[in-house]
Design brief:
The complex is a heterodimer of chains A (about 110) and B (about 120).
Chain A (H helix, E strand, L loop, with lengths): L2 E5 L2 E5 L4 E8 L4 E8 L5 E7 L5 E3 L5 E5 L4 E6 L8 E9 L6 E2 L3 E6 L1
Parallel strand pairs in A: 2-11
Antiparallel strand pairs in A: 1-3, 3-8, 4-5, 4-9, 6-7, 7-8, 9-10, 9-11
Chain B lengths: L4 E3 L2 E4 L5 E6 L6 E7 L6 E7 L2 E5 L6 E5 L5 E5 L8 E8 L11 E2 L3 E5 L1
Parallel strand pairs in B: 2-11
Antiparallel strand pairs in B: 1-3, 3-8, 4-5, 4-9, 5-6, 7-8, 9-10, 9-11
């Protein structure tokens, strides 16, 4: 069975500060890992994904995440927050045999001027 | 390239009624998945349709049912609505199991269902 835990349901940062959203996963098989963003009253948009290969993956809008197998983590970072980054962020896991995603409960990012 | 579209965007039903939600998949995608997102929660997998057949189901009762049509569009039907069915219902399309799995889903903007 697979699962995802997102630590911190709310994260607040100042504009220009580092963004760090935490995600830990559990999987008995090599995982595929994803970060999705959801803006108010909208669907989910893929930020980035890890399937195989390089463990540091870069996504859209300046976000990146690093797959750390030893820590079972896939934390999302951005060096400098922008007001437009305020949204809900979801970490998700699947495996190579399926595209059925297991989502975490989400982290709401607030960015203050 | 046309993205995933869902209808209606909002609707209100009363307990015990039935609802049908519709989804058009992204061009070139033959697989549609449905997710339920309750307020303040992450999306939960309901089921997936591939080539008009159900291809996996999450932990949802049989009153949640679906269809996929030859053009790969899909419907989600919920019978005997309960208050807890109030949620955002998201449709996502993908390339399907007959392609190399990239794991990527393309989501629509959702149908927000309120059950009174």
């Amino acid at each position: 069975a697979q699962s995802v835990t997102q630590l911190g349901s709310h994260v607040s940062v100042s504009e220009g500060a580092l963004v760090l959203l935490r995600c830990n996963y559990s999987s008995s098989v090599p995982p595929y890992l994803f970060w999705y963003v959801q803006y108010p009253n909208q669907g989910l948009q893929l930020l980035l994904k890890y399937t195989t290969g390089a463990t540091l993956v870069k996504g859209i809008n300046g976000f990146e995440a690093e797959f750390k197998k030893s820590e079972t983590s896939f934390h999302l970072t951005k060096p400098s927050a922008h007001m437009s980054d305020a949204a809900e962020y979801f970490c998700a896991v699947s495996d190579s045999t399926t595209d059925k995603l297991i989502f975490g409960t989400g982290t709401r990012l607030q960015v203050f001027p | 390239e046309t993205g995933v579209t869902q209808s209606p965007t909002h609707l209100i039903k009363t307990r015990g009624q039935q609802v049908t939600l519709r989804c058009s998949s992204q061009s070139g995608h033959n697989t549609v998945s449905w997710y339920q997102q309750a307020l303040g929660q992450g999306p939960q997998f309901i089921f997936q349709y591939y080539r008009e057949e159900e291809n996996g189901r999450g932990n949802f009762p049989p009153r949640f049912s679906g269809l996929q049509f030859p053009n790969y569009s899909s419907e989600l039907n919920v019978n005997a609505l309960e208050l807890d069915d109030s949620a955002l219902y998201l449709c996502a399309s993908s390339l399907g199991p007959d392609r190399v799995n990239t794991g990527e889903l393309f989501f629509g903007e959702g149908s927000r269902l309120t059950v009174l």
